[in-house]
Amino acid sequence: MLNRRSFLKKTSIGAGLLAAGSFPLESFAGSREKKITILHTNDVHSRLDPFPNDGGKLAGMGGVAARAELISQIRGECDNVLLLDAGDMLQGTPYFNMYKGEPEIKAMTMMGYDACTMGNHDFDAGIDGFARLLSFAGFPVLVANYDFTNTPLEHKTAPYTIIKKGGLKIGIFGLGIELEGLVSGAAFGNTKYNNPIPVAKAVSEKLKRDEKCDMVICLSHLGYEYETNKISDKTIAKETEYIDLIIGGHTHTFLDSPATERNAGGGETLINQVGWGGVRLGRLDYVFHSGKNPELYKSHSVNINKETSG
User: Fold this and answer.
1) What pLDDT shows up at residue 306?
2) What are the CA-CA distances from residue 111 to residues 85, 90, 132, 139 (Å)?
3) Domains of the chain
């Protein structure tokens, strides 16, 4: 991970920046460095409105209006922004009970999400119900380890996508959790679950080595970690070589900062997750040096409420 002080010292204006107490990367105009800001959510669970002001732990937090305002503000400040979601967009409030996911997907489209993966609760209106929602989605749904052959979702999702931002190629793929035991057979139909470890190895290698992506991101709904041998984000990080960042979901884990795992290639894979209910927006700012792996120079999860500011 980039050390702020050592990075500044490598520049001719580092001392001046330190004295000013600021770190404007824009000051390196003409250099070969490139930047990208990654914003992300997970397990929003149909929380279109803020949590009620009932004195609870999450009182007044969340809601798509405050989230949309914050996203818009960050986009106004940063040139290259990606907005991603790690699944379980649906289920959890009367909005889903009444409208079966349509306002949730329309809200995400309005906010300009670039991609998402599927969580187990995204099957709660049935596989045909989720397929219907895709007509409202202005972003791809990515799941590499589900085989949707002979289902309503056949040809309507993708294993991965490549997004070009600011001269960078960002490869993004999705992984879904085992549905058996979490979702009724009637809801997921003929969907076939494939072991995510070999899938992650193959797709991430393709994106990094064949497609020459500058960064590979995995949108995972496997869960952060378990006390059993169940496959988790930590497992994927350790067993693969070419994933730079895992944005996770399912376990509703509030990470105050990204976790780091040593991967199979001896490098580092970062994992981040921002709880549930849309009460936080994850933010990860990366810098790319020519010919080197992306380096995280700033990360923070922003609590979303009426007073939220970037």
Assistant:
1) 67
2) 12, 16, 20, 11
3) 38-303 (3.60.21.10)
